[in-house]
Amino acid sequence: MGSAWPEERMRAAAVQLNSTEDRGRNLEVAERLVRAAAADGADLVSLPEKWTILAGPEELLAGAEPIDGPSLTAAAAWARELGIHLVAGSISERVEGREKPFNTSVMFGPEGDVAAIYRKIHMFDVDVGGVSYRESATEDPGDEIVLAHAGAIPVGLTVCYDLRFPELYRILAIRGARMITVPAAFTEHTGRDHWEVLVRARAIENQVFVVAADQVGEAPPHYDSFGRSMIVDPWGVVLAQAPDSECFVAADLDLAIQDEMRRSLPSLANRRPHAYRWPDENLKRRAEDLDGGPPVRTPPPEPPPRPPAAAHSPGPSESPDRPTMTPGPTPGGV
Questions:
Q1: Catalytic residue among 21, 65, 139, 160, which?
Q2: What does 71-139 look like in DSSP terms, one character per residue?
């Protein structure tokens, strides 16, 4: 069962599911694994994307629920009973007056209260592995970046395809995120080459812990999810990674070591935002290029005169030795 933790430490868990169109079965397995993760000491547990129903567009639309629907009501009850923070993956959220649902991640506090609601910003409109995915045809994108809190720890909320958009993660880090959750149903075709690389990159770039709970295996009509749910530290070290089955993995997150990493390699503090502003004219020309208009290029500025050679004095190493971090046990299938 989750318990109070000192502010400098937290135990987090990622639940990996093979959800299908069978909502009853999905909720049964999710509850069992959430309870097992809490019994293992997890203070925060994350479920994967579309944990209630993973199926074709018609089934997703028919199975969409409001925030106070039966699935999230059940998740809130689990969080309250177990005394944990629960990131309820994402569901198809039905909103009164809207034709299409949102792909929505809800975080519950240990009292069962809604701590935050994030609606996936980036729609998965791609052609990969011989399958055309058009998420925007059946769901609407959100437009709000959301930072929640698990106790005193700021937690950024994202969903799956968001992982490919580093701007979102950087903004969350600048706003204070110490951890970012990524419930996902990452395709097997892209996942085998990109999943771990992207999760670790987002962790390293922003010096945050990333808790990435993924779907695994096949679901109708054409889903084949990669799995390998993982928890990664701010140095990019994989603290826990799931096998190819329904299970949970957990790890102890040491925020004091995160502070040490940020002090010794202060990349966030060394940002120079004023240098990153793109001139409007260049943006317009780049947009024309992407839209098929005539390619217009802005010539680079002339380089400054080369200074005379000076004696080289070696400076300190860019990458100090990584502080020691010991992951907790990572249980397999439960």
A1: 160
A2: HHHHHHHHHHHHT-EEE--BEEE--TT-SS-EEEEEEE-TTS-EEEEEE--S--EEEETTEEEEGGGT-
Cα(36)–Cα(34) distance, integer angstroms: 5
Q: Select the more confidently predicted residue: 69 or 5.
A: 69
Active-site choice (49, 93, 139, 196): 49
Q: In CATH terms, is domain 9-264 a member of 3.40.50.720?
A: no
Contact 35, 24 (CB under 8 A): no
Residue of 50, 120, 196, 246 marked active site: 120
How far, rounded to the nearest angstrom, does the alpha carbon of residue 10 sit from its chain's CA centroid? 18
Residues 198, 226 contacting (CB under 8 angstroms): no
Q: DSSP assignment of 16-76, as one string?
A: EB---S-HHHHHHHHHHHHHHHHHTT-SEEE--BT-S----HHHHHHT-B-TTSHHHHHHH
Q: 8 with 254: CB under 8 angstroms?
A: yes
Tell me the sheet residues that pair with 238.
232
Q: 308: buried, middle or exposed (CB in 10 Å: 19+, 13-18, 0-12)?
A: exposed
State how far the Cα of 313 lies from the Cα of 36, in Å rounded to an integer: 56
Domain ranges of the chain: 9-264
Q: Which of 201, 280, 204, 195 is nearest to 230 (CA)?
A: 195
Residue 120 annotated to the active site: yes
pTM for the complete prediction?
0.83
DSSP string across 157-170: E--GGGGG-HHHHH
145-154: pLDDT as tens digits: 999 999 999 9
